[in-house]
Amino acid sequence: MIEFRIKYAQNYLEDGKILYDHKSYNSAISRLYYASYQAMWAALGNPEEGRTWKHLAIIKPFVHGHWFYPKHPEQSQGLLEHFRLPLRQLYTLRIKADYELVEINENIVKNKIETVADIIKIIISKKGV
Asked: How far is CA 18 from CA 15, 22, 29, 72, 112, in A?
């Protein structure tokens, strides 16, 4: 299951890069968001039976890092805390791009490509994929 979702995360990241190269920044941000969502899902595994990962709710357990270091205390700061804000921003940008039709800036997309690539690399490294 991890490999399956990582594959989709990587595919969506590549789609985002292609859209970026074609100056389709709003569509790129949408693909980048879904790349991060699939990557986080790969890291965390499936949610409890009968549940789904909510878009903003998946960020907290991902950032906490319990998925790769189960001994990390529940009440402490996340091991991947430096990703919390960029992931929340990516979610907000996707909403703005897809629903509010706000034009997304080229530099923002370029930055988010790097962020998503880093997230995927960390998951692959920590999960041994």
From this structure: 5, 6, 11, 38, 14
Report residue 78 as tokens. Answer: 């996340």
Each residue's pLDDT tens digit, 46-97: 988 878 889 889 999 999 999 999 999 988 999 999 999 999 999 999 999 9
Reported pTM: 0.94
* Domain that residue 118 falls in: 2-127
Tell me which DSSP letter residue 24 carries.
Answer: -
Q: How far is CA 127 from CA 3, 48, 68, 77, 124, in A?
A: 10, 20, 7, 21, 5
CATH of the domain at 7: 1.20.120.330
Predicted confidence (pLDDT) per residue in 98-113, tens digit: 999 999 999 999 999 9
Torsion of CA 32, 38, 43, 45, to 10 degrees: 160
**What is the domain count for the chain?**
1
Q: Report residue 91: phi and psi, to 5°.
A: -60, -45
Helix, strand, coil percentages (3-state) for the chain, rounded to 5, are 70, 0, 30
